[in-house]
Inverse folding.
């Protein structure tokens, strides 16, 4: 089968299992001629093993014949850190006001989950990337 010609790539962040044709999904897909309800159903099916409401990035490739395929990425590091620590949001003044503390084990668990989407050669490097994100949110990192 010949490779289909890609006419557009759309990147969105959508809550797992909770996509709807309403913004941001509909307006992003509409100009490319992609059926929003069709994407929504496929996305919600594909994310049924991910915790509902967890924000997941998705990259949608739109082809010339108006069909599409999509790839679901791992949730952003900040979202995972907030989930692990049970935070509503990061600190408004991360260098002054600390909102939580991440243990080495929690840091390693998040790094291992994010590994496929990080530009890191090993878990140690991934942990440094996640630790940097945590610090920028006002979360202390143990160790």
């Amino acid at each position: 089968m010949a490779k289909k010609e890609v006419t557009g790539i759309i990147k969105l962040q959508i809550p797992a299992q909770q996509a709807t044709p309403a913004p941001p999904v509909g307006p992003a897909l509409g100009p490319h001629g992609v059926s929003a309800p069709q994407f929504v159903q496929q996305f919600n099916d594909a994310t049924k093993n991910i915790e509902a409401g967890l924000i997941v990035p998705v990259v949608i490739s739109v082809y010339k014949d108006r069909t599409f395929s999509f790839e679901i990425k791992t949730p952003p590091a900040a979202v995972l850190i907030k989930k692990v620590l049970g935070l509503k949001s990061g600190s408004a003044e991360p260098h002054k006001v600390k909102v939580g503390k991440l243990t080495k084990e929690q840091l390693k668990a998040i790094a291992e989950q994010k590994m496929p989407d990080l530009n890191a050669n090993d878990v140690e490097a991934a942990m440094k990337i996640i630790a940097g994100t945590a610090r920028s949110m006002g979360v202390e990192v143990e160790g």
